[in-house]
Amino acid sequence: MSGLKIVVIGGGSSYTPELIEGLLNRYHEMPVASLWLVDIEEGKEKVEIIAGLAQRMIAKAGLTIEVVATLDRESALRDADFVCSQFRAGCLDARISDERISLKYGLIGQETNGLGGFANACRTIPIALEIAADMERLCPDAWLLNFTNPSGMVTEAILRHSRIKAVGLCNVPVIMQKGITTLLQCADEKEVVMQVAGLNHFIFVRQILHKGTEWLPEVIAEINAGRDPLVPRNIPPFRWPSHLLQGLGMIPCAYLRYYYMKDDLLRQELAEAGGEGTRGEVVKQLEKILFDQYRGPAPGSQTEGRWKGAAASTIPRRPAS
Asked: Which residues are designated catalytic?
């Protein structure tokens, strides 16, 4: 396989180092020749910081990959092999506006569902379709990997209204599988076969097989007993009502609490908005800290070596909360 051209739309995102780490870890399977980080004028400083960090990560790995930071999406997309979409339309200020407007009228403003999710989709889908149209012209054989939220709606729009090859990705099912592996004390998560139904971010685990044996009832019992490692770490610990899981006979992902526990979540979000701020406001402040670390000193330094831990403790890793 010759070297690949990878394009990241929203390359100045605080999540990009996680993506770069994955590319470096899998270089022997998927050798990358060039990595193009695309952003808009408002994200110019951030994408340049990420490009610098990417170059230091690549050098530390002993690899040779060209890194290009650009605001020119057309040049970046030309002859691309894979395009990763992870942009946030309107940046964090738009997310904060969604949250505040929703709460003003007694509604949840979370970025992937409810009023906030719908507003986000209205801003995002037209841009996603523009990107898809550009890909039809400039890299018609490329795959689009969509991380952009609300992922389900955005990906469906692309599949319905463009001819490109696209898939929507989210790590919630992966996190749930890892949690189930922990509960079952399995040596390898590949031993666990998990059947999932639903659309991102609202999915249900409806079957759990380990070496051919069904374990769903046992896992539900463990969760009802207060042992629930299936929740992403960007979501504070909580407990499902025990009757809910028993009645469903399935395990909902944590984002479904915005529906099943909406009154509790609304009270929580109102309290947070009146205190430390909405989630978007908190993330905006934490991002400043994280990008100071991403500027980083010399390669191999302790600060740069801990970027992953810094991201975990400040900015929630995918999916965005």
From this structure: 255
